[in-house]
Structure formats: C-alpha cells, structure tokens
Design a protein that fits this description.
Length: 391
Amino acid sequence: MRIGITCYPTYGGSGVVATELGIELAATGHEVHFISYSQPFRLTGRDNGIFYHEVPVSSYPLFEFPPYDLALASRMAEVAEFNHLDLLHVHYAIPHSVSALLARQMLAAKGRRLPFVTTLHGTDITLVGLDRSYLPITRYSIQESDGVTSISQYLKTKTVEDFEIARPIEVIPNFVNCDVYTPYTDEGIRAEARKRYAQPGEAILIHLSNFRPVKRVVDAVKVFAEVAREVPARLILVGDGPDRSAAEWLAHDLGINDKIHFLGKQERVNELLPVADLMLMPSQLESFGLAALEAMACKVPTIATRVGGVPELIDHGVTGLLFEVGDVESMAAGALGLLKDRDRLEVMRDEARKTARSRFCATLVLPQYVKYYEQVLAGAGTASPTVRSTK
C-alpha cells in the first residue's frame, strides 16, 4: 500500500508512535509518505521506502495565527494525488482529522476516493478535544473518519462517553520494536555503560517525557530525593518542556542536583533505557504509557500511577508498581523495596521484557494496522492497492 501519515513531528508519544509505525510499514514493503510542517525527529537515517513532504504555511501579515490546518489539507490532497496514495493515517485528532476530511472532499470533487484513518492518542480526547471551542469539530471529524483507532480500551471508552460517538472504534495498542529496544545480554557491558551516569553500586532511575505538567516531572524528582536518602542512586531525566525549569530548581533546593542528569531531548533512547534499574512515570494521566513500554522492552520495570490506560500495560507487582497520583511517599517506598530486594527486581525485569515481547512487539501490532487498513479500503470502496483507479 501507499500510505500518507500525518503527526506532530516534535517530541511526544503520538509523534513517536506515528513515526515508528511508518518505519515499520516501510520495512515490510509499504510506501510511506509523511506530511507535516517538519520532519519527524525519529526519521533520521531511516529513509528507505519513506518520503517526507513539508507543509508550507503562509506568513501573510493578515493572519495573526497561520492557518496550518488549511495548508495541511491542501498538501494532503496534493501528495495523495501526485503519489497515488491509497489512504491517509492521521495521528492526534486535532487538527489532523479535520484536514484529512477536507483533503478527502477536495479529491472527491475530482472523482477520486481517499479514505482516512484517525488514531486517537490521549490529550486530543481527554484535554484539548473537550474544550468547547474544539468539541463539535472533533466529534464531527471522528464520526466522519473512514476508520478510527484508539491506543487503549480506556481511551476508546472515554471517547465514546465524552463525545457521544456512535461509530466503531478499533483498539490497537502502542508498540515497540523488540529488536531495537533490547536489554544488555552481557552484564559486564551493561556495567561499563552505567559508569557514564553512576558509580559502581549506585542505582539508576530514569524518567522520559515531554516535561508537560501532566507528566509531573517534579514528582519524579521528589520520588528520587526520597530514594537517594536511603540508597546511593542517580536519576536520568530525558526530555524537555515547560516543567524542566521547575524540576531543575527543585533539584537545586533539595541539594540533589549533582545526582541528576538532565539530558534534554534524545533520539536514541533505546541506548539509555537499558542502563536503568527503574523507570519513573508519575503522570497525572496516561492513555497508554509508551515510555513505560519502551522501558519494559529493555527489562526496566516502571513505578507508575494507576491512571488511564496504564493498568492495561503494567501488571501491578508483576511488571511494575502502580500508585495513586501524587503519592510520592508510596512510590519512593515501592522503588526502595525493589532496589533493596535484587532477586525480586530481577524477576520483575524478566517479566517486563516477557510482556513487551508477547503482547506489544511491532511484529504483533503492525499486522493489526495493516489488516485494519485493508478493511477500511474495502469498506470505502477504494480500488485495490494493486489495481489503482485511473481517474
């Protein structure tokens, strides 16, 4: 198939999933065209079968806010027509599904059908989409999509209830490439890699996010502070965003800034995760918890909050530990319990990797998307990928 993918190309879960999906699709022989205002950051050096189309946005002085959604719709229609795309797959409903709807209508006027699939990722439903300014158009674009997928059962239920959606929504979970996100098989090599961030005998905790308030990175610092009082430890913070300054100041005020590595945005997180003992994910809300899954694939259990779709990913006491939002003391106690009981931690590490491999590997999830694309194409009455329309 020839598939157009639109996502937010910046650091964030929906963009990561969309980009990795495109990479996996291209690796299995499909042709993938990314359409966005800049190249997704995880595309670097992996361009075989992948094409990128930038969306130019006018800076005409009349526009206080450049109309990106309209420019995107025009570019979607152009790319689809010039490259004979079979369908569009848009990630994050706002404004991508609206733009895809406009592109579909533009091409319909030329006698060409272009179905589109919308994948719901989280805050497009739980936060932004519920804003009264966006709710009606978000509901309409979801209803009008040729196919809709959700990354968790939680998000599907939330969408149906809050937006009164009557159409079917397919749950296809986030995934991880289990051949890229792997643990060290040689403990000697792992110990050597850990020396970059910690002294021998020190535990390593890690947090990965876009540092938005919903991720509660400050809580991660608080949890680490409690842990560091009892055991030698270091914290790696990967990412950047509005709460970075607050986290830095808190670390300074608590006198632990010399034990924390602020690494900023990183492209190769698969090389960072395996050095850690535990992942911290104290989020206010997670519709899935992709960072935790990537950690699990690297044999790193997660200390997380019992919110949203996280319980669908993490089995409490088996592949990680779940606590209430803001319960820093319990999260710290849970982390200390594991760090002081290495046998229990090793069992949990093994179970985390096993769950990632058995339920969330790209090789298991990718066929679900391909099958869904085929169903959408058939339902939309679109020509078969091998027998294209000549209109």
